[in-house]
Amino acid sequence: MRYWLMKSEPSEYGIDDLVRDGSVAWFGVRNYQARNFMRDEMRLGDGVLFYHSSCPEPGIAGLAEVSRLAYPDATQFDPRHKYFDPRSTPQAPRWFNVEVRALKKTRLMPLAEIRGCPELAGMKILQRGNRLSITPVEPAEWAFILARLGETA
DNA sequence: GCCAACGTTGGC
DNA sequence: GCCAACGTTGGC
Description:
Layout lengths: L2 E6 L6 H7 L1 E3 L6 H10 L5 E6 L6 E14 L23 E15 H5 L18 E4 L1 H10 L5
Parallel strand pairs: 1-3
Antiparallel strand pairs: 1-6, 2-5, 3-4, 4-5
The protein binds a DNA duplex (12 and 12 nucleotides) through loops.
């Protein structure tokens, strides 16, 4: 059982969308490190912090879990799609996505609050210049955040 | 809109 | 393999 933080822009797809949909395919990741996390390391039931980025109030907005293991991202094969990748073929797909299921919408835990917690100082999201859309979360960080949000593990 | 930081591309 | 140029991310 591992834990992850996954960023999404709420103007594109936010926690309310996830709760409405129940689950979603995490397509569109075009970064090798983030892809490798999904393809190689995520397991069913892994915990996910759903994070709102590039918005007026960036922060953790909800909890989710990995509900389907990685499979080829369909958008890479679609020439009309903005995530089309001409270097990919169905025989040699380059990009993968997992699916994520909503557990619940939480109160927003703003980036500033995360930054203010010494227990969370090691989080990747706080490291200078980190732009990775998917990052691993330590079990202790996960537990601390859940406690802080008034959730039980 | 600004800008720092980073990943990717491509010429050599 | 190097590295400059470019594009993107994301907080502010």
